[in-house]
Every structure is written in C-alpha cells, then in structure tokens.
Fold Anti-sigma regulatory factor.
Amino acid sequence: MEEHAILEKEIDKGDFSRGGEASSELKALLRKLGINNTIIRRAAIVTYELEMNIIIHSEGGNIKAAVSSDEIFIYIDDEGPGIEDLEKAFQPGYSTASDEVREMGFGAGMGLVNVKNYSDQLEIDTAPGEGTSIKVVIAIK
C-alpha cells in the first residue's frame, strides 16, 4: 500500500510547552480523513508518548506520520543517547527520567509500554550513543 505523508514535525529537547502538539495535529488530520475515533485515539496516544520521549530523553528529533488505505504509520528519529536496555524500557514503571522531569509529572515509565500496547507493529532501532528510530504501524481496518 502506498503511504501518503500527512505530518512532519521537529521536536526540541526539553520544550515541554509544545509537548502534545504533534499528537493533537495528527488527531485533527486523521479526523479530516474520516478515520474511526478508536483508531485515532490509539495513534494519538502513541504519538504523544513518542513526542514526550523526544522532549524528555533526547537532544531533539522529529515525528512523521503517513497513512495508506489500510494503515497509519508513525516514525520518530531522535538524536538522543539511545536506549541502553530495551527489555527494561518495556517494563511498566521503569524510567530513566530525571528527578526534575518526574517532579513535573512526566517520566512515569509507561511511554514505551503504551506505545507497544496501542500499536499493531513496533520496530525500534537504537544503540547507546546512536539515537533512536521507531516505526509504529496501526491498522485502520
């Protein structure tokens, strides 16, 4: 199926004031396309979690989204430290967020857990010191 890009957004490190913009924009775009609200919710949750991970853990990055007739594709690339232990990153409650971030109410250790739970397909390419690339696929039908 051919993908059609619908969103591309740069995300800055530590810019909590803009956290959630990409997920809100994606939600509005998917509504205009007539996508089912349950599917939109899943895509918004995934995008929000990935967006916040870029803000909290990386030096910046970007989020892209595309759709085909059957699927929503969400891609992120960041210039962060990479994920040192993927197995731990998927354990509910495991977090490497700083105390400052936790005091703001973020970094509860559910980001990648939620991404996995609301995705139909999840691919992660990461290495310590190399940044992280993630591809998520959510079936529309």
